[in-house]
Amino acid sequence: MIPYTAPQFKSTSFNCPHCQAFSQHNWETAYAGWQGTGMNQIHFSFCGHCKNYAIWHQGVMIYPEFFGIEVPNIDLEDDIKKDYEEAAEIVQRSPRGAAALLRLAVQRLCKQLGQKGKDVNTDIANLVKEGLPVKIQKALDTVRVTGNEAVHPGILDLRDDQETAQNLFKLINFIAEKMISEPKEVEKLFDSLPEDKKEAIEKRDQKND
C-alpha cells in the first residue's frame, strides 16, 4: 500500500485532490485584486496525472474543497465508505460529529469482517486472534473505540478533537488494508499460479497438518 501524502502548499509531489493519484504537481502564480485592496497572490497547482488544477490562497487550498483526508479503502462496503466520506466532509467544522460517524464505521467494518457488530470491543479482540496486530487494538483504545472508556458508536463525545478523528480515519483504512485488501491480493497471486504448482502446495500443506 502506497502511503497517502496530503497536498501541501508549494510541494511538488502529493496525492491529487481530484484523482487521488500520487503525482508530480507544477505550480503557477497569478495576481488578483480590487481597487483600493492591493494585489493578492493566487497560486495554481497542476496535477501531472489527471491535468486538473487546484487553487491556493495564502497557502490554503480553496478549490477544490479539500479536507486533507485519505480516501476510504476501496474494499470497504458502500455504507462504510459513505460514513467515512461524510465524516471527511464535516471534520473541520465538527470533529466530534466526524468521530461519532467513524466509530459507527468501525462497528460496520467489524460486521464486514464477519463479526457480530454488537460489541466492538469483543469484535476487535476476535479480529486480533485472526491476525489484526495487537497494536491496533491498543490504538483503538486510545481513541475510545475499545477498552474501559469506549464510546458507543454514533454517540458524540465532548473529548473528541481533530487528532481523534484523524486517527480514526487512519485506523479504519489500516484495518481494511490488513484484513481485506492484503489477503485478497495474496489470494489473487495464488490463483495466478499454474494448476500443478497449486496442487503441489496443497499436498505439502496437507502433509504438514
Concise account of the structure shown:
The chain is α+β, with helices and mostly antiparallel strands and 209 residues long. Helices cover 45% and strands 17% of the residues.
Could you give the distance between the termini? 32 Å
**Whole-number count of domains:** 2
Which residues sit in consecutive blocks of at least 5 with pLDDT less than 50?
none
Largest beta sheet: strand ordering: 1-2-3-4-5
In helices, the fraction of residues equals 40-55%
Would you give an account of this structure?
The protein is α+β, with helices and mostly antiparallel strands. The protein has 2 domains: 13-63; 78-190, no CATH class. 45% of the residues lie in helices and 17% in strands. It is built from 6 helices and 5 strands, in the order βββββαααααα. Helix 2 crosses helix 3 (120-129) and helix 2 packs parallel to helix 5. The chain is flat, with a radius of gyration of 22 Å. The two termini are 32 Å apart. 23% of the residues are buried. The model has no long low-confidence stretch (mean pLDDT 87).
Please write out the topology.
Blueprint: E1 13-15, E2 22-34, E3 38-47, E4 53-57, E5 60-63, H1 78-90, H2 95-112, H3 120-129, H4 134-142, H5 162-191, H6 195-208
Antiparallel strand pairs: 1-2, 2-3, 3-4, 4-5
List descriptors:
17% strand; 5-stranded antiparallel β-sheet; 209 residues; alpha+beta
